[in-house]
Amino acid sequence: MKKLGWRYIITGTLLLVLIISNIYIFAFCKIDSFNKQKVEGTIKNITVKPKKEEYQISLIMVGDALIHSTVYQDAHQADGSYDFKPMLENTKPITKKYDLAYYNQETILGGVGLGLSNYPRFNSPTEVGDAFLDSGFNLVSLATNHTMDKGEVGVLNSLNYWNSKKHVATAGSYSSFEDRNKERIYEMNGIKYAFFSYTTWTNGLETPPGKEYLNNVYSEEKAKEDIEKIRDKVDVVIVAMHWGTEYNLGVDYSQTSIANYLSSLGVDIIIGAHPHVVEPIEYIGKTLVIYSLGNYISDQIGIERLTGLMVAVDINKTVEDGNTTISIDNLKADLLYTKSNYGRNFKVYPYSRLDDSILPNYMSYYEKYKSVVMDRNKNINFCYLGE
């Protein structure tokens, strides 16, 4: 009886252990299943917001480098070289701070070997380009009414100079049709852009037949072909236009017509040159149109021809939920003045840094030309761009 009792006790104990184990396993599985369902439910109910990506390029633009003989003579050094850098030292701290800096090289940089020359057929030292590169300029328009002043050799000399430099984009003058038609897509800070330059004026100096690539003369057909070929491959299209009427502070019909056409092709920024004086700024749809920046540096006669315009904008790109948005914002401007003393000591000043000792009665000129620029757009922020 004693042996049988122990057998019952052992059997009962084993059964109890088995029952408790099953209960524990069942409870653990239920809890794990519940937790798994809870975790899965949480994951399923989370709304993941698409990542918003933002990119920006800062762009500054100035007008014409119109290098009269007095300007290059002032830059002449004792060793025979030329140094234009001191002429730009007041604006260099401004232009250097921007990602992109644009100017129009009005006179051909054919170099001293071709013989330097003044109006009406200019030829300038290549050291002009050195000074502008030193000031941070990296977008250069080459299609002007003076591009052919020294013929084909002048153009090729100019192109040899620019092609030897790094980190600069030129447009408007080419060494062949293959060169002209090459697809040029630039990228900075996550934004892709294209840059074109056209002139509507040639001063009667036509390119040799079959060599129209030397100077990019505007036509609607040419612009349409160029822009449509690349519009969907870039975020921003910038076009420099040599157009308008010299010394006209207003905007003529041809400028308005071309601006509207380029806007219809999807151009984002149009930068105007040729009038040698400032003209209005406006938006046509989303296209920023600067009709004329005037002269950046020159020795023309009259305050209005010695007054130029410096314009800055931010190019913004936002990518969200598969959609890309481009905007041209933060439009700011300042006027510029080229000071010299009877053909010596040329120097460019921002108007916001002038005083009456540099330009007597400068504030009256400031208000006059500011009102010209704002004639079609009252929302331009005039300020010192170096801040």
The total count of helices amounts to 10
The CATH top-level class label of the largest domain: Alpha Beta
* CATH architecture classification name of the largest domain: 4-Layer Sandwich
Q: Can you write the helix and strand succession as a string? A: HEHHEHEHEHEEHEHEEEEHEEEHE
CATH superfamily of the largest domain: Metallo-dependent phosphatases
The shape, in one word, is globular
Q: Indicate the mean pLDDT.
A: 91
Tally of strands:
15
Question: Would you tell me the structural class of the helices and strands?
Answer: alpha/beta
- State the distance separating the first and last CA atoms: 106 Å
Fraction of residues in β-strands:
15-25%
Report on this model:
By secondary structure, the protein is an alpha/beta fold. It folds into 2 domains: 1-48; 53-382, Metallo-dependent phosphatases (Purple Acid Phosphatase, chain A, domain 2). It has 10 helices and 15 strands. Strands 1, 2, 3, 4, 11, 12, 13, 14 and 15 form a 9-stranded mixed β-sheet that branches. The longest helix is centred in the N-terminal third of the chain and has 44 residues, at 2-45. Mean pLDDT is 91; it is low at 8-12, 14-20 and 22-44.
